[in-house]
Amino acid sequence: MADDWRQAWIAALDELEADVEAVERMIAEEHRSQELPAATPWTPPPGLGPLPLDLRPRADFILTRQLEAARAAALAITANRRQTAFAARVEVGTAGKGIPSYIDCAI
C-alpha cells in the first residue's frame, strides 16, 4: 500500500516535471520546429494523499523550476512586445508621426 502511494506521487511529479520541461523548451525557442498543444492545468490524480516526505525536495525543485519558467515566459512576452512595437516604428519610419504625403504642384 505504501509503495503504491509513493509510486502514485512519483508519477504525479513526473507529469509536472514534463510540463515544466515543455515550457522551458518553448522559452529556449525549440518550439519553432514543432506545434505544441495548448497546456492543460494539472490536477492531482484522485486519492493521491499527502506527499511522501522523501519526495518533498523533488517537489520543491519542480516548483522552483515552474516559477522560474513562468518568470522567463513573462520576460519573453514583454521583450517580444517591445520588439514588435520597435519593428512597427522602423518599418514605417515614422516613430509614431504621420506618414508624409507629397503633392505635385506642377499641374
Would you kindly provide a written description of the structure presented here, covering whatever features stand out?
The chain is mostly helical. It has helices at residues 2-27, 56-92. Helix 1 (2-27) packs parallel to helix 2 (56-92).
Features:
mainly alpha; 107 residues; 59% helix
Mean pLDDT: 80
Structural class: mainly alpha
Question: How many whole angstroms does the radius of gyration measure?
Answer: 24 Å
What is the chains' assembly state? single chain
- Beta-strand portion reads under 5%
First and last CA, distance: 95 Å
Helix content: 55-70%
Total of helices: 2
Number of strands: 0
Sketch the major β-sheet: none
SSE string, helices as H and strands as E? HH
Q: Regions with pLDDT < 50 over 5+ consecutive residues?
A: none
Overall morphology: rod-shaped
Summarize the structure.
The protein is mainly alpha-helical and 107 residues long. The chain has helices spanning 2-27, 56-92. Helix 1 runs parallel beside helix 2.
Write the topology of this structure:
Elements: H1 2-27, H2 56-92
